[in-house]
């Protein structure tokens, strides 16, 4: 497994990793047992240069960090080329160097002769091989082979003869079909049979065939797959290594993946990378999506337990995921059991049943606790009688309307009245919209009593109409994600009134923060100065 | 192509179609040239029963509507079985009937003998074949074949001998690999070689192989693919028919799809279905995603123009999509040209450019006109100077808050002040939430001047946070669908204030209705009695 989340993955639309993000992901990839971790393209930016410095301080076990770059420029010696120098300076055990396979690409885009292109590949590989293990990424290999098979093989031979240990066949545009990948991978192996090299496959998902193409290349003799976690990457993304690992590890007995480690960390890894990249999870992602083992109502839990294999292609626990029964009377049980462990509810069956009943009641109203674990924690506290509110809502009001009809300028204001202990707090705030105003007003009114709320801010706000069949009277589900800079937590509110739904999610967010701190230490007495 | 978006697709988490949604989608599927349109499961709910009644009024060209159901229950005659009766009552030209292939599933879950299972398949097919063309969906065919190949083939023979014209091999759990699908499809054809039947393939995407599995089954002799638009469906979804159509139509010259029609409507169809299902678009979806042909900055447009094929596996226009150079957008052109035709804008290049500029400006704010064609019509009128407003907003206000904090009872009230001609209208209304109140208030204030607005009601309301990175200050996109009982139309509003966004969508909805009537006949003079 060769992971390029940190390099090719970061080409995806909306993806941007900080230096610390990159280090965190590298650590996780090593822990799960990824052999090659491509960290970046040191010539392209300072952040990647810094990554290769800092990554030396991490203990990555048997994983090898790779720096990525291009072959030397034309008409220049490899040792003088800035890209080559940057690769060597990265000081990684492996370097991955990309070069041109496609005759058209060399002559029409790079404007070099076919011979010069071969020299660029060979001389670059030879130079790098003095410093590290060399992987050669053959860009557009499949398109190039279709256009000029003889030349495409020559480019591989130029790299192999100069010391590249790995030849990686890239379907750069993601347009190849499995039958083409199988045939051309076989042809490449035959064309290099006199060299002691191994083959890799690097697929993009533009035809929704990246997983099939990668698997078929392995069946044709490749031994390395390059991809990214969750398939993030430019355009339609790279192949999703999660699906590759799970398919090979669980369905193809001839393969061993991750050095024989179990695959139970895959779901957590997937979500970690989404969160780090600030991307929405893909709910229906194979193996690790929230919906991957979700079953809609009307189906008896009894039947699923009796014959899970009639509904599930694998046991979800094998990849760290879980079965979810949607809407039915037993939804959320696995969540409840998982969380119950965290709360030391132990064997209290009666309490478990009360929690379950409350979850069912709320889910029928449109609640979903998957990404609102803070609200779920508070629900357990409320049902088990360990919840003491930090404040009491006396009143909230919002007023909104146009300020300037012609230019579509609107306003929103919130008025909040709360009670903390015996003290009344009354405050007002403006906002971009009613929810923004409510959020500002709530924190403003509480900051006197709980100054630590000054650290809290909202990082995400989602609105969903739960049942959109009744027009504007439909139920509205609001999900909020909050952070205090150290932790992030999700809360939820549902109502037919978006203001009320938002209010509930905001109140839970604040209560969660205050309860967590109260649990960590005895809370300070609320100050008694009203505002 | 056999589309089951309206049945299997609606099993997807978070997917719920109204009756009108289903009819709209059926119409689009027919227009694009889908041969079979599975409309629902009439035994399971009233909405699907109503669909099969209403769909008869649509002109679907050569497309055939299919009703879905199960084989008869055990120990019951087919003609007495409620499911069988519901299928016949649907009155469709085709019925799709699902039955059990897997011996384990029949004996352990259904608790019937293997012989009774065969009788259930055969008698059900025989009964249905008297009324319509019968398609037999062989549930778990690949798992069943692996467990007991002889019995699996017998189930197909039971259906074929009773008159089923199509045998559809289902990878119900989505766990099969392409090599298995190829071998087992071939075996099924051989096992049925003495029958004049055709084969279909029905794949789920649990292993991220649904597209590859479907293509390989076609290569092995199947001639029908069952799938959904955008691959929506239970768990990881069904196969995405968009990717199937595009791969077959653009990459496999031996196949003809959509009766030879061009594929340029695929992108619009994809987005229409997402909007109707109120799902986020999948940005990196192959062929039709917003990012599918997006190239990140730093790359010269010049270079892409010179050698697009070095970056793109197909010309994006072939599927109605477009290249995007991130940071400089030209989205919406295909829409504009399509709609321009409808409005007889003819060759007015200058007007086209002005419309284009306005669309780009609004899309940058978060507007999307795919399912808001009424707002788009009004945009064209506004830009071309043919828009005369039917009323002027003087003021709108909403007030909302808690009525009963303890029981989470909230209230919302709207105050509306408008001018029609020289007459001021002022009114107020309550609602379940602020938007519901605004809607009621707007119509109430206008009914004096335009009594025909009494016929109008909202049938759908959708809220989406466009940029959720800035918490509650994010932009909010509101989509509204309205009806007057004869026609339905969609409008849109975007603002950082949900109240303002909703107001814009509501105003467009009313203006669209009034303009359409004004175009049909000279409008009556507004009445002059204020309220």
Automatic annotation (TrEMBL), chains A, B:
Keywords: Amino-acid biosynthesis, Branched-chain amino acid biosynthesis, Isoleucine biosynthesis, Transferase. The lineage of its organism: Bacteria, Pseudomonadati, Planctomycetota, Planctomycetia, Pirellulales. This is Citramalate synthase. It catalyses: pyruvate + acetyl-CoA + H2O = (3R)-citramalate + CoA + H(+). It comes from Rhodopirellula sallentina SM41. Pfam families: HCS_D2, HMGL-like, LeuA_dimer. One of its GO terms (biological process) is L-leucine biosynthetic process. InterPro entries: 2-isopropylmalate_synth_dimer (IPR013709), AIPM/Hcit_synth_CS (IPR002034), Aldolase_TIM (IPR013785), Citramal_synthase (IPR005675), LeuA/HCS_post-cat (IPR054691), LeuA_allosteric_dom_sf (IPR036230), PYR_CT (IPR000891). Residues 1-267 form the Pyruvate carboxyltransferase domain. Its EC number is 2.3.3.21.
């Amino acid at each position: 497994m060769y992971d390029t989340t940190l390099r090719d993955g970061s080409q995806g639309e909306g993806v941007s990793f900080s230096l610390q993000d990159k280090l965190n992901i590298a650590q996780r990839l090593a822990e799960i047992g990824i052999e090659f971790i491509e960290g970046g393209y040191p010539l392209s930016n300072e952040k990647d240069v810094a990554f290769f410095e800092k990554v030396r301080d991490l203990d990555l076990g048997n994983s090898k960090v790779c720096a990525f770059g291009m072959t030397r420029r034309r008409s220049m010696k490899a040792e003088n080329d800035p890209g080559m120098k940057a690769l060597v300076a990265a000081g990684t055990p492996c370097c991955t160097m990309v070069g041109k396979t496609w005759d058209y690409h060399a002559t029409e885009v790079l404007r070099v002769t076919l011979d010069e292109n071969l020299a660029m590949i060979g001389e670059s590989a030879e130079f790098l091989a003095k410093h590290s293990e060399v992987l050669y990424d053959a860009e557009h290999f499949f398109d190039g082979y279709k256009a000029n098979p003889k030349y495409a093989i020559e480019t591989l031979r130029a790299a192999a003869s100069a010391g590249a240990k790995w030849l990686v066949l890239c379907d750069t545009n993601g347009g190849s079909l499995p039958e083409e990948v199988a045939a051309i991978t076989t042809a490449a192996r035959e064309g290099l049979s006199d060299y002691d090299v191994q083959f890799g496959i690097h697929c993009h998902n533009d035809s929704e065939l990246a997983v099939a193409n990668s698997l078929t290349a392995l069946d044709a003799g490749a031994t390395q797959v390059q991809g990214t976690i969750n398939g993030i990457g430019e355009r339609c993304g790279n192949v999703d290594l999660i699906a590759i690992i799970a398919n090979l590890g669980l369905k193809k007995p001839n393969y061993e993946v991750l050095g024989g480690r179990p695959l139970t960390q895959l779901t957590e890894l997937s979500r970690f990378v989404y969160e780090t990249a600030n991307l929405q999870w893909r709910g229906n992602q194979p193996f690790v999506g929230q919906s991957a083992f979700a079953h809609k109502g009307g189906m008896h839990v009894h039947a699923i337990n009796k014959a899970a294999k009639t509904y599930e292609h694998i046991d979800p626990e094998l990849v760290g995921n879980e079965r979810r029964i949607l809407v039915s009377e037993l939804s959320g049980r696995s969540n409840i059991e998982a969380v119950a462990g965290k709360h030391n509810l132990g064997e209290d069956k009666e309490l478990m049943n009360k929690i379950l009943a409350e979850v069912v009641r709320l889910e029928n109203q449109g609640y979903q606790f998957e990404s609102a674990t803070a609200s779920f924690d508070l629900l357990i506290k409320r049902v088990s009688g360990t919840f003491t509110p930090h404040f009491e809502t006396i009143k909230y009001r919002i007023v909104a309307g146009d300020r300037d009809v012609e230019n579509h300028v609107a306003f929103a204001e919130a008025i909040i009245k709360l009670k903390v202990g015996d003290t009344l707090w009354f405050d007002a705030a403006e906002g971009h919209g009613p929810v923004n105003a409510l959020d500002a007003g709530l924190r403003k009114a509480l900051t006197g009593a709980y100054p630590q709320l000054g650290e809290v801010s909202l990082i995400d706000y989602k609105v969903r109409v739960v049942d959109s069949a009744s027009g504007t009277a439909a139920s509205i589900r609001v999900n909020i994600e909050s952070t205090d800079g150290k932790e992030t937590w999700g809360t939820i509110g549902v109502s037919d009134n978006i203001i009320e739904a938002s209010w509930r999610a905001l109140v839970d967010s604040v209560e969660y923060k205050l309860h967590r701190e109260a649990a960590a230490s005895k809370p300070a007495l609320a100050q008694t100065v009203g505002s």
